[in-house]
Specification:
It is a single chain. By secondary structure, the chain is of the alpha+beta class. It folds into two domains: 46 residues; 162 residues, Endonuclease Chain A (Endonuclease, Chain A), CATH 3.30.870.10. Helices cover 45% and strands 23% of the residues. It is built from ten helices and ten strands. It has an eight-stranded mixed sheet, with helices on both faces. The chain has a two-stranded antiparallel ribbon with strand order 1-2. It is elongated and about 80 Å long. The mean pLDDT is 86.
Length: 240
Amino acid sequence: MQAIGINPQSKRDLIDTLDIPRSTLDDIIRELEQKNLIKYQEGKWKTTVFGRCIFNIHDNYINNIDNMINTQPVIQELPFNTPVDRCFLLDSEVFPASSSVPDEVVQVLLESIEPASRIQYFTPVVMAGYLEEFYKYLMKNGHQVEVIFSYDVLSEVYDLYPNRVDNIFANKEITIYQGEMPVEFSLWIADEQQTGIMVYTDYGIRGAVKNNTNDAIMWAAELFNRIKYNAEPVYPADSK
């Protein structure tokens, strides 16, 4: 099907293209023709309209399976009931953390939000080694930022960087929330054009997955808004 999908070929040419015995090719052609997937016309075999549609569906299915398999090294750490939708995994980019410097994958997040004018982010953990760099991105002029922390994470951040947290609260373009975090990954949305998640293990970061498809961004926005709905705005005194 793939061999004749673009360029119709004679049986002789197909034998050379596929490098299979003629008897095997005869069996394949007979079965495909009986199912109205291919037809013989002007001395060459070509796909029917129905056959071309069936092949495209099959090809997309195989590509989707391969894409899902690529995400497995990162998302395997998540609990079985984690609300990561397949639409986020399809057509995604996957960044497994290296064994030597696992935290380096945080650059995927930072590079994604750096040019954005609107950032939405929630996290159930503290990335202590990157708090200073993350702070610089948040404090850039023109950024409209919403950040949701779990209760324990916000107090931990304040203990580590009290002055930085006070500066964040003084920035009117940044809104901080705290609440229950029903997921075990961080999520960001940059300008409603790209989204990503960061997955953790008990020992550090497993990796990141990002996606810029409309379906993925809609899923991320719905999840962010659901967590935000159950969170509460934080004021300076609440973080201490």
